[in-house]
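Please fill in the sequence for the structure shown.

STRUCTURE ENCODING:
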């Protein structure tokens, strides 16, 4: 059964008041990807240290985010003119001669590294694989003492 008119007004007022303190979608996720941006600011890459709970178990979970560039699986010269800007991330572990590509924008997971000091290079790249900027994360995987 529907409430009375005063109840509905109070509920609507509560929702409005509660929403007044919540950041807008644009404030959290940035401008709409459906509208071109004139004079886009430079792309930026922000990489967090590995999650400590996972690192203690020998697994490397690294979260990252970008500003002024959407990480999506679009490649090639034709994508250079897309606005808002698009790209992907090259990831190199411990100076390997190769890297892998992440185009998901999600947490990067690396397993199989032994105990000791490691580093992971994140390179933000445009659709033609030209590196825009980079960040390196240094960490230590502890030796594990498994119970017998």
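FILLED IN BY: designer on duty
SEQUENCE:
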């Amino acid at each position: 059964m529907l409430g009375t008119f005063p109840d509905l007004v109070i509920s609507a007022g509560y929702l409005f008041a509660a929403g007044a303190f919540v950041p807008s979608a644009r404030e959290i996720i940035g401008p709409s990807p459906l509208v071109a941006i004139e004079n886009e600011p430079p792309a930026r890459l922000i990489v967090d240290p590995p999650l400590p709970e996972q690192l203690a178990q020998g697994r490397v979970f690294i979260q990252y985010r970008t500003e002024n560039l959407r990480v999506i699986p679009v490649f090639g010269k034709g994508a250079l003119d897309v606005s808002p800007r698009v790209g992907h991330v090259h990831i190199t572990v411990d100076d390997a001669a190769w890297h892998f590509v992440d185009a998901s924008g999600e947490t990067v997971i690396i397993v199989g590294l032994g105990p000791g000091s490691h580093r992971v290079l994140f390179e933000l790249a445009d659709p033609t694989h030209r590196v825009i900027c980079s960040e390196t994360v240094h960490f230590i995987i502890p030796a594990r003492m498994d119970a017998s």
